[in-house]
Amino acid sequence: MDPLELAQIGTTDVRVTRLGFGGAPLGAASGAEGRIRAIDTVSRGYELGLRFFDTAPLYGKGKSERYFGSALSAFDRDRFTLSSKVGRVINHNFSGPLDLYAEDPPFDMVFDFSYNGIRRSIDETLARTGLDRLDIVLIHDPDDHWEQAIGEAYPTLAELRSQGVIGAIGAGMNEWEMPARFAREGDFDCFLIAGRYTLLDHSALDVLLPLCEEKQISVILGGPYNSGVLASDLGPSTTYFYERTPPEVLETAKEIKAVCDRHDVPLKAAALQFGLAHPAVAATIPGPRNQEEVEENIAMVRYEIPADLWSELKSEGLIPEEAPAPG
Q1: Nearest 10 degrees: CA dihedral of 314, 9, 218, 16?
Q2: Active-site residue, from 46, 54, 154, 197
């Protein structure tokens, strides 16, 4: 697969590389050394050809957005696509000197899917990044806020899209059910789904992905490594959906790795390429923490995987028979 191939978002003019750069882990970087490493990591992604970068105010309470802005401001703004999120905004609760890159900045994250909250969130993201626009804006984790998300956040974003302020709009969530509802009730361009279409979790396959394909809504896959387990040594301390990996899930991961080993394919390569094979999927966005992980992710998408590997995973019941296979 070509990680640098461009894919269209919905029916818009927005384009993304098939492999993107997820900014959540960079939110954990702190201090001068962490800041430099984070900025260098983003810069390395761009230098290697990645042109899709995703962040959010939630990630490090604004730190991820600042790191992205510091790195990407050095490049031609028309050469990359930047997405961020709205609905989880930062309230300041400090007085006196402020270290914006502290381990835990003295801010509170609050839900606000109102018209004013959405406009404020976008303005503050632009201020933090120092960039002139956002290409994609996603409603962030509205799990318990459906009415305000569809009644206020969505119309606000749709209006900004119609004005040309935003290129594409969508929602970013850790579930597939509400995005499917959004797809039926609104005019969305894309959804970022974290961890719900991977080698270990195929729950978005039956309903959401066919619905998005039908409605020409692009899917962006977050968490292709399922928050770590598929990029790990599969030891007992690995994480799955940000918690300790359940024994039965770890056993399944080991069975998948055994198939990969028989075909001399890294588990990471299979993890990244599996999701990209679905026609509804425009991009996958693992979250590299350093330059080495950026380089490795690109190599894993390029890794040549024999068709027999996917056939064996299906015959052993490890991935659904109906899941599209790469190649």
Answers
A1: 40
A2: 54
